[in-house]
Amino acid sequence: MVMLHPPSSTKPAAADGQGQACAAAPGPPVLQVLSGLNTFGCVERATLDVAASLAAQGHRALVASAGGRLVRELERLGGTHVTLPLGDDNPFTLRQAAHGLADILERERVALAHARSPGTAWALRRAMTLRRAILSRNVPMVTSFHETFSRAGPLTRFHARALAGGDCITAASNYVRNHILAHYPVGPERIQIMPYGIDPAILAPDRINQTRLVDLIRRWRLPDDRKIILIPEGLSDRRGLADILAALARLGRRTDSLAIIPCADTPNGPRRRAIERRLTKLRLDDTVYLAEPTLDRAAAYMLATVVVTAPRHARINDHVFVDVQALGRPLVASDVGAAREFGVPGKTVWLVPPGNVSDLAAALDEVLGLTERRRRQVLEQAINHIRHRHLKARFCAETLAVYARLLDEQTGTTEVAAPSD
Fold first, then answer.
1. What is the 3-class SS of the chain, one letter each residue?
2. Does residue 163 form part of some domain?
3. What CATH number did the domain enclosing 378 receive?
4. Domain of 159, in residue numbers
5. Is residue 421 a part of any domain in this protein?
6. In the chain, what is the greatest distance between 2 CA atoms, to the nearest angstrom?
7. Which pTM was predicted?
8. Average of pLDDT values for 60-84?
9. What is the pLDDT of residue 19?
10. Digit-coded pLDDT (tens) for 102-127
11. In the predicted model, is pLDDT for residue 23 greater than 70?
């Protein structure tokens, strides 16, 4: 009998007379497939969170990707990684990856598979076709739309049709759900909205100790007397950097603020040199600092007076919205995509029309001028909003409930505990 319970229902196994744990029979293997595990974005975090929940329930939590620095974290959480060439949309590479996935489906007797990107959905669907005769069974397939792909390249849009072919499709927001319904032949009953969630025991202001903050202050050489504007998405104009710099120029040479851009490019890299020339042209040399990148994003957010992200199109980084508010920091962002679903406009986030530099500058100026009393209100409202709507425990419980439902429909023998908050 397959048991898929929410993570909160996990109980330690009792010990037998030999001192060994008496565990229940292991649950069926579940395979998650994504492009890679190199960056800590929403897709990667969701994969690791679900893998940890599966492992805690006694399931074999398999993850196939092109690999990356987060593989070790996955293995620490109890997951098993298989490296396959899934890192790009090259058709020949994905065909090779499909054969590797087919081998995993057969060898591990995978009960359910979950694809988290267009290319991986296409490869997984092909793998299932290759092995269907051997397996003599259908493997339920979950797919996830973490974003929309209407502005992506033709190959990604083609592969996204496979992403829309899941037995159950999870959508990161209502905005994404509506996009799926508008662009793919999918009925609403197949879509379940599952916004990304955080663990308040880890991501909360009182969980970020002073040592982490002092370490980042020293590494970035931050002054004590200036307000920090954090631009977390680096040097990409796709993420609105050009508009942000133009807005900072409109603010003038404010001596009370300093904008920080974590920059992964080398000191003499072409992208960095181009940005430095732009800063000089805008007279922002003393206002914007290109800092070394940091893995401790939470500490960076805690040091910020305001965080800003300004893409012109519908792709927002959900984890930036959620993490910044979880730490009680004000966020200025473009009013695109699901932005209004992930924050409370005017209370926890300040939303501006995309590409409107004047409004972006005004919003930054307003947030930089908030009184201490108003900042405390923002902190409380932002944290309450996230803890009410974006919890990791709920996200994982709902995901495992989807898995259990599909396995139940497949075998008729699955018991499912109701998802908990």
1. CEEECCHHHCCCCEECCCCCEECCCCEEEEEEECCCCCCCCHHHHHHHHHHHHHHHCCEEEEEEECCCCCHHHHHHCCCEEEECCCCCCCHHHHHHHHHHHHHHHHHCCCCEEEECCHHHHHHHHHHHHHHHHHHCCCCCEEEEECCCCCCCCHHHHHHHHHHCCCCEEEECCHHHHHHHHHHCCCCHHHEEECCCCECCCCCCHHHCCHHHHHHHHHHHCCCCCCEEEECCCCCCHHHCHHHHHHHHHHHCCCCCEEEEEECCCCCCCHHHHHHHHHHHHCCCCCCEEEECCCCCHHHHHHHCCEEEECCCCCCCCHHHHHHHHHCCCCEEEECCCCHHHHCCECCCEEEECCCCHHHHHHHHHHHHCCCHHHHHHHHHHHHHHHHHHCEHHHHHHHHHHHHHHHHHHHHCCEEECCCCC
2. yes
3. 3.40.50.2000
4. 2-10+25-197+391-416
5. no
6. 75
7. 0.85
8. 96
9. 37
10. 999 999 999 999 999 999 999 999 99
11. no
The CA-atom distances, in angstroms, between 220 and each of 217, 253, 262, 334 are 5, 21, 9, 27
Q: How many domains in the chain?
A: 2
Q: Are residues 231 and 347 part of one domain? A: yes
Same domain, 184 and 231: no
In DSSP terms, 259 is beta-bridged to 229, 288
Tell me how far apart the alpha carbons of residues 323 and 202 are, in angstroms, rounded to a whole number: 11
Residues 108, 238 within the same domain: no
Nearest Cα to Cα of residue 325 among 298, 362, 293: 298
Residues 231 and 326 in one domain: yes
Same domain, 46 and 115: yes
